[in-house]
Amino acid sequence: MYIVVVGGGKVGYYLTKTLVNEGYETLLIERNPAKVATFTERFGAVVMRGDGAEAATLQEAGVARAKVVIAVTGDDEDNLVICQMAKTLFNVDHVMARVNNPKNEEIFKRLGIDTTVSVTNLILSYIEQNLPDRELSHLLTLTHSDLAIVEARVSPRSPYVGKALSELKLPPDVAVSAVIRGEHLLIPGPDTHLAPGDDVIALAHRSSEDELRNSLTH
Amino acid sequence: MKVIILGCGRVGSTLARSLDSSNHEVTVIDWNEQQFQRLGSNFGGETVIGTGIDEDVLRLAGIEYADVFVAVTNGDNRNIMASQIARTVFDVSHVLTRIYDPVRATMYHQLGLDTVCSTTTMADIMQSKITSEAAIQETAVV
Prior knowledge:
CATH architecture of the largest domain in chain A: 3-Layer(aba) Sandwich
Structural class of chain B: alpha/beta
CATH class of the largest domain in chain A: Alpha Beta
CATH superfamily of the largest domain in chain A: NAD(P)-binding Rossmann-like Domain
Radius of gyration of chain B: 18 Å
Shape of chain A: elongated
Helix content of chain B: 40-55%
Largest sheet of chain B: 6 strands, parallel
Number of helices of chain B: 5
Oligomer: heterodimer
CATH topology of chain B: Rossmann fold
CATH superfamily of chain B: NAD(P)-binding Rossmann-like Domain
Number of strands of chain A: 11
Largest sheet of chain A: 6 strands, parallel
Distance between the termini of chain B: 53 Å
Radius of gyration of chain A: 23 Å
CATH topology of the largest domain in chain A: Rossmann fold
Strand content of chain B: 15-25%
Order of helices and strands of chain A: EHEHEHEHEHEHEEEEEH
Structural class of chain A: alpha/beta
Strand content of chain A: 25-35%
Largest interface: A-B, 20 and 21 residues
Number of domains of chain A: 2
């Protein structure tokens, strides 16, 4: 499997190093000649000098036979264009972009980037899932839709407490998938009653998340 | 018309002044405040400091009510990304993108952006001047 990494900052450097060690055929494209010289000394022939947003560079790198192109420069606009060119001009199967401004993650997806990685969002979701006073955490965002699997703990003040699931006025496009009480998994049915401290796992549309959060946790 | 111009360089500022003097509502975005000096003291439009690839900055410039968005910074990729945000996220009806690299200009034109490639435009003008002057000289010799 041939992998092309564009951008020789810290992320690109360690990513390339790891991929090479894992035995993948890898090429790193970097603009700065000084960096290219240093990296070539360390990695051997897996580093190429060039601008990854230039079609000629991608051509020379043999991107057309790459399984994955990963753009990890520090500039979102460059990562977007590199991925779009690899996909449009060279029919690369899978393009991945590092996203620096977390807001751009969604925009990138809408613009055809298969996978985006935002360190800010990763840290945020880690905090949300691991801090005790968490409200509604994203367990998984589903690809190609605005749905996410979310988890929230039922607060004692929630209007849902003591009511059967069939009686709840859930926001639109929300499906309660599981209720965890203590260490027990309850498969929810119409008669399942929610209790304070229950962890509710639900499939929810993005537009309904705020309402669901308010109802469960306030 | 409400026009947002991203990039207050020579092209951006010239266009902004000209549209402003024909009574269009103009907002110019640039990350470098000093660039706004190019607009001159008679400029009646708005200026916003920031990068055009940030939704919040675009919103601050009033992109939700814009009829036209023009991306003329000196970075091709920045112009491309800002234009795609304007089109995809904010549904601006007319988006114009300046791209220096002819390959990228062609590709994004095929993907639906209204691209202006200053490199090929300039080269074409130069070439037609050269050939027409050569033709005149030849005629003169004959």
